[in-house]
Amino acid sequence: MDQNIYLIGLNHKSAGVDVRERYALTNIEEFEKGLLDMGIREVMALSTCNRVEIIVVCSEEFTENEILSYWADKCGGSKVDLEPNTYCHKNLKAVNHLFRVASSLDSMIVGEPQILGQLKDSYRKAVEAGAARVIINRMLHKSFFVAKRVRSETSIASNAVSISYAAVELAKKIFGELKGQKALLIGAGEMAELAATHLLNSGVETIRIANRTFSRAEELAKTMNGKAIPFEALYDCLSDTDIIISSTGAPHAVIKAKDMKKVIKQRKFRPMFFIDIAVPRDIDPDVNGLDNVYLYDIDDLKDVVEENMAQREDEAVKANSIVESETLSFGNWINSLDLQPTIVDLFDRSEGVARKELAKTLKRLGKIDIETQEAIETMALSIGKKLLHEPVSFLKRRTEEEGAAEKFVDLARRMFNLDNDTIPPDAHCRRKKQKD
Amino acid sequence: MTLFEFFQYVIIALYLMGMTFFIAGTLKNNQVMGKLGNLCAIGGFALHSLDLLLAVTLYKSTVLTGGFFYFSLLGWSFILVYFALWWKVRNTFFALTASPLALLLFIASLAAQSLKVTLPAHLAGLFIGLHIGTIFVSIALMAMAAGAGVAFIYLNNKIKTKANLTSLGKEMPSLNTFDRVNHWAIMIGFPLYTLGLAAGFLWARGTFTKMFSWDPKEIVTLLVWFLFAFLFHQRTVVGWRGRKPAILVIIVFVITMISLWGINFFIPTHHSFKV
What we know:
The complex is a heterodimer. Helices cover about 55% and strands about 15% of the residues of chain A. Chain A has 16 helices and ten strands. Chain A has helices at about 15-20, 30-35, 65-75, 80, 90-100, 115-130, 135-155, 165-175, 190-200, 215-225, 235-240, 255-265, 300-335, 340-365, 370-400, 405-415; strands at about 5-10, 40-45, 50-60, 85-90, 180-185, 205-210, 225-230, 245, 270-275, 295. In chain A, helix 5 runs antiparallel to helix 13 (about 300-335) and helix 6 (about 115-130) packs antiparallel against helix 7 (about 135-155). Chain A is elongated. The relative contact order of chain A is 0.09. Chain B has a domain at about 120-265. Chain B has helices at about 5-30, 30-60, 65-90, 95-110, 125-160, 175-210, 215-240, 245-265. Chain B is flat, with a radius of gyration of 19 Å. The interface between A and B is medium-sized, with 25 and 21 residues. Chain B: It is found in: Membrane. Chain B: Keywords: Cytochrome c-type biogenesis, Membrane, Transmembrane, Transmembrane helix. Chain B: GO terms for molecular function: heme binding.
C-alpha cells in the first residue's frame, strides 16, 4: 500500500499534566479539517484529560514531523517542546495501540470503561466531519469490537478498584439491592463523604449524618439530601440503620461491641455493615464477631482494592493476547485492500459455495455415472465464475480511479463477507445526514 | 430397551445436562449456561411429570405400592420447588441443591423398581394426597433452605474473614437473598410438614388402630418436627436471621436424609420398602 497509518499522542505516562493541558485539543473539528487540507487522507483526534491522540492515514510522503509541527502550532507551542513528551506508532503498531486504548489497557486505572465512550465520541465527530473514511472506519469499528471481546472474555473490569466502590460492592454482597437501605455517616471526612455518595448513587434510600459539630453535619446533610442528627443521639439511630460509615477524629472507639448486642436485638437481627475509615479506628473490632454484623476498616478495604488491582493486571495479560490476535487480523485486512487478494478471495468463496451445493445435489441424485457428475460439477463452477465476471470488471475499473480503490475493495469484501467479520451492532456511530 | 425405558434415560440425560450447566454456569459466572440449565431442567421436569402421570394411569392398581414411585415423586418435588424459588428470586444458584438431588432420586427410583410398600388400598388416595404430597414438598423446601444455609455460611465466613470475594463471582446471590430463601422455605415448609405428619398419624390410626407405634421412622420424624418447630418459632417470634437458622436447618435436613436413606432401607419400619 502506498500509505501509512500514524498514531501520534501523549498520555499520563509520557507527559505531565501541564504538558497535557497545554497540548489538549479544544476544537477537534477545526484541527481535523486543517490536517485534511494539508492533504492527509483520513484523520481522527481524541482529546481527554489523560491523553491526546491523533490517528492519521496519509500517503508515504508525509512524516510524523509534519503532524507534530502542525499540532504544536495549533496549540501555540513548539515542536521541540512537544516531541519529547509524545510517542509515535506506525501502521500495525498504531492499530495495536488503538486497540489497547479502546480496551482500557493503556488507561491510568486498567479496565475503567470511560475511555471507550470518549473514543466513540471522537469517532462520531470525525465521521460527521468527513475525516474518517475506509481505514479509520474499519480501525475504529474493530477497536470497539476488540474492547467488547476483552470485556466479555476477561474479567478485567469486574472488580472495584477504589475504596468507596469496594465498600459499595461489599454492601451489595450483604444486602443485595441497596434500594431502601438506610445509611448513617459518623463524622464528615472527605473519604467517608465519597463513600456515602457512592452508596446514594447505588440506591441507598436515606442518609443521616452525625457530627460533633452539628452545623457541619447540617451543611453536609444539605448537599446529600440527608438529615443531620445530634452526635449524642447516635445509638438511638443505630437500630434503624443498615450501613454505617465512620470517620471521626476521636482517639478511642465511638461504637463498642457490648453496646451493639442490644442494638442488634432491637433491630431483630437484621444485618448491619460498618465501614470504618477513621485512623485510629472508631468502631471496636469485636463488633465483627457479632452475628449479622460486618465490619470493614480502611486496611481491609485497601486489601480488597489491592487484590482487585492485582487481578486486573493478571486479566490484562489475557486481554493483551486478544489485542495481538485482532491486530494480526486487521493486518490481513489491510493487505487485502489491494485488488488482487480480493479477486482471489472472491473466486475462492464462489468455488467453496459451488462445491458445497454440488455435494448436496450429488447426494440427492444418488448413483449417477461419472460423465454426468463431471458435467454437473463443471456447470456449477462456471456459474460461480461467470456471476463474478461483472463485479470483478467493475472493481478493476473503479480501482483505476484516484482514491476509490480502498472504498470499493472494502465494499466488495464486506458485501461478500470475505473477512468473516462480525462487527457488534453498538459499534456504529451515527452518520450525519447529508442535507442535499 | 422399551419406549418407557428410553423415556426415562432421556429424563436422566436432561437432568444431568441441566446439573452440569448449572454447576459450570455458577463456577464461570455465565448466565447463558444458567439459562441452558433451566431449559434442560424444564424439559426434564416436563418429561418427568409425564412419566409420573403415565405410571399412575397405566399401572393404577400397582403403582402406589411401588417404592420407585415415591423416590421419583420426591425428585420431582425438588425441581418443582426450585422453579418456585427461581420465579421468586430469579437466580439459578438454588439449582445447585435441587438438580443433583432430583437426579439422584430419579436414578434411585429406577434402581428401586422391585421395591414394594404395604399400602391399604382404601386409604391410598388420602395417603398420597396429604401425607406423601405435603411431606415431599416440605422435604424439598427443607433442602432448599439447607442449600441456602450452606451458601450463607460460606459467604458469611468469607465476608467476616475479609477473604477475597471475587472468586465467588458476581452472580452469586447476596447474604440477604440466601437468608430470605431460608426464611421462605421454613415458613412454608414447616406448616406443610406438620400437615403431612398429621395426615400420616390419622392414616396410621385408621390402618393400625393406633396413631403412634414407636416405629423408628416415627421417632426420628417427631424429632425432626420438634427441631423444625423450634426453628419456625425462633424465626417468627424471636426474629432469628442469618447463621443460626442456617445451621439449624442444615441439621434438620441431614437428619431427614438419614431417616430417608438409613431407616427406610436398613431398619425395620412401616416405611421400609420391602423387596
